[in-house]
Specification:
Blueprint lengths: L1 H8 L7 E6 L20 H14 L5 E6 L9 H9 L7 E5 L5 H6 L20 E5 L14 H11 L6 E7 L7 E7 L8
Parallel strand pairs: 1-2, 2-3, 3-4, 4-5
Antiparallel strand pairs: 5-6
Helix pairs in contact: 1-2, 2-3
Length: about 190
């Protein structure tokens, strides 16, 4: 796919915003293309994004990956996503559509009171907007081992900074089997006294 080819060779050390829209609406011209990379996230694409960000080391503040087809399910997608996000210390906005997430993402995005140094800070410590949407319900439960309890803990640890929060995930969760989990807040950040 074109996205994969570009991400493999480009370097952008000054990049502040990365928006990839590979949704069906944008790629209508590729209707005859059977390439699975066109509309869904693959392991190869995740590896290419990881390599691109490592190579570029940009001061990224906005990351948006918008795919519209069911993710190609593969072990390790959640780990690769976390490896992509860990170095993005200045990231303010994260929007993911049809990207596999896991419980460990919620865990690693949670602030803990005992953390006092930079090395123990969570993934994306500067995040002020989080949107993770997954509209397809026909994926395997093993790809979405997301715990509602851990999502709530992550949100609570960031509630003074994380506005808005939107999550729509297939909830193959222990709390809500065979349904979708939807969490949404649209409150504005409280003003300083």
């Amino acid at each position: 796919a074109v996205t994969l080819q570009v991400v493999k060779w480009v370097t952008c050390p000054s990049l502040r915003e990365l928006r990839v829209d590979a949704s069906e609406n944008v790629t209508q011209v590729l209707l005859d293309n059977d390439d699975p990379d066109v509309h869904c996230m693959t392991r190869e694409l995740l590896l290419a994004y990881k390599s691109f960000l490592h190579r570029s080391q940009p001061p990224l503040t906005h990351l948006e990956l918008n795919y519209s087809s069911r993710s190609v399910i593969a072990d390790g997608h959640g780990l690769l996503l976390r490896e992509i996000l860990r170095p993005l210390r200045a990231l303010k906005t994260l929007r993911l559509t049809e990207i596999v997430v896991d419980t460990e993402l919620s865990e690693e995005m949670t602030f803990h009171e005992e953390e006092g140094n930079e090395s123990s800070a969570p993934i994306c410590p500067s995040l002020s907007e989080l949107r993770i949407m997954h509209y397809k319900s026909d994926c395997f439960a093993t790809s979405f081992g997301v715990s509602l309890r851990l999502v709530k803990a992550m949100h609570k640890s960031r509630e003074s900074q994380l506005f808005p929060l939107s999550l729509l995930l297939p909830s193959f969760l222990e709390e809500y089997p065979d349904k979708f989990l939807m969490v949404s807040t649209t409150a504005t950040k409280p003003s300083s006294p």
